[in-house]
Automatic annotation (TrEMBL):
It is an enzyme of class 7 (translocase). Keywords: Electron transport, Membrane, Mitochondrion, Mitochondrion inner membrane, NAD, Respiratory chain, Translocase, Transmembrane, Transmembrane helix, Transport, Ubiquinone. The keyword Membrane applies. It holds the Pfam family Proton_antipo_M. PANTHER family: NADH-UBIQUINONE OXIDOREDUCTASE CHAIN 2. It catalyses: a ubiquinone + NADH + 5 H(+)(in) = a ubiquinol + NAD(+) + 4 H(+)(out). This is NADH-ubiquinone oxidoreductase chain 2. Belongs to the complex I subunit 2 family. It comes from Alpheus inopinatus. Residues 25-83, 88-280 form the NADH:quinone oxidoreductase/Mrp antiporter transmembrane domain. One of its GO terms (cellular component) is mitochondrial inner membrane.
Amino acid sequence: MLNSNPSRVMFGLSLTLGIIIATSSNSWFTSWLGLELNLLSFIPIISSSFNSYSSEAALKYFLIQALGSATILISASSMWLFTTNPGFLILSALLLKMGAAPVHFWFPPIMQGVSWMHCIILMTLQKIAPLILVSYTIISPISSYMVQISSCLSALVGAIGGLNQTFLRKVLAYSSINHMGWMLASILLSSDVFFTYILIYSVVSSSVVFLLNSNQIFHFKQMSSISSTKTKAISFLSLFSLGGLPPFLGFIPKLLVINLLAQSNLILWLLLLLTGSLITLFYYTRIILTTLTLSTPKLKPSLNLKPTLPPYTLAFINFTPLLFPLMSFYQF
């Protein structure tokens, strides 16, 4: 991911430091500093002089994140000048920075413009700080309603938006937006469930991305060019795990959120999240059926890469509920 380049290692460490500063500070100004450090560390990582698409994606990402950071800084400064609490502005800026609906428009194009390894950072690490800061803004009924509305919209937009996509990076981008709805629900109800969700989601999404990157798969049609039956099977089951299909690992955090919403009698919210999750499973199934039914007359040698050990090792984590079923339900 960092290609053992000293500069990229340094930017990776400062990116992680920015997340730690933003989430552990006791003032919005220090949190803003952490978010800026995280942003300025991520821009050099994704930008490349050899790829114009990554440079364009880096510029778009910088502009969007700068808008969110400016909104946070202005809103936090206004707390000292006015008696009203501008927490809804900070919450809106954080939703923009994490790519949650209805301010999700920038996320799929940027995912399409960066490499697979940078997609992992964008889907996992870059969401941790804004999500944790969102939990600090839920201090009034208005902010709670905003989180609920954004959660429902993220679940539906992420599901419907991925239906007409043929590029796998955009499919995973909309899938990430759909998972944002579940994460916002978990962070509103239980911080322990949220940390469980973000950890399992990071592992499952990384396992899918590693498999796709090891075979250099970017489009639906390229999935049928995988010659190894074992690679196809593991890729398909990992996609089902990412979609939350039982009994794979990706179902465990969704089961915890379902349990919380059912106990809180938030049935309508739960139905919207489940509807979005079922639609995401539909387009994952479409990818698999397309791969199984279509065949390419010419297999490109560059697409028949032999996956290395780490992608397979990480992908087998998705099957832990099958191997250790009793450990999967320790939360209950």
